[in-house]
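Students often ask why we bother encoding 3D structure as a string. The short answer is that it lets us treat folding as translation between two languages. Here is a chain of 217 residues written in the first language.
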Amino acid sequence: MTDDLDRIPVTEQRATEPEDARCATDIGRVRAARRDEAAALDKLLQRTAGGDKGAFAALYDLTSSRVFGMTLRVLRDPGFAEETSQEVYLQVWRTAGSFDPAKGSAQSWLMTLAHRRAVDRVRSEQSNTDREIVYESKNNPGEFDQVTEEVWDRIERRAVLECLDTLTPTQRESVALAYYGGRTYREVAADLGVAVPTIKSRIRDGLIRLRGCLGVG
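And here it is in the second language, the structure alphabet:
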């Protein structure tokens, strides 16, 4: 009986050794595959710099999903992300000669381009949104603008945040998208799948309720 118990740990250790060896082998294979892929991408990018359209097509096939994923994470809009990804590859075709393997891998170079392009797109869209807000504020006077000035000029942000809880869910969502998300009426309507007049009404009513909560006479 004692001999049997003494043998159990040895048996278990022998059973696990092949599994550990397989894990080590799998990790080694993954690392080797990554090295091979990195080397292949470097070569494709260098051939692209020489005007090789076939290499460029192969590079696109191997990396486009990653580039799209990067732009989508920054932009959070599939349409903008797709457009920006195409811009990235146009830039790759034009500037592949600037890639230096000594400074990093082809994938790192591509991801850096994608991130920069996406950030530029965010800034561009924000600039367009700001211009639309200024235009609408100048060309749509009335009760909405009056309430907006009364609310946002005369109270502190903390008080506004507290009073937002007094709005209906639809009012709060619309006001938050417009003022904290920087969206125009049309963009809020598109995000929520609601007509523009409905969005205007929700925001107007929400701001009126905010005025009451804040004691703005």
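Translate back mentally: The CA atoms of residues 74 and 118 lie 6 Å apart. Keep this in mind for the problem set.
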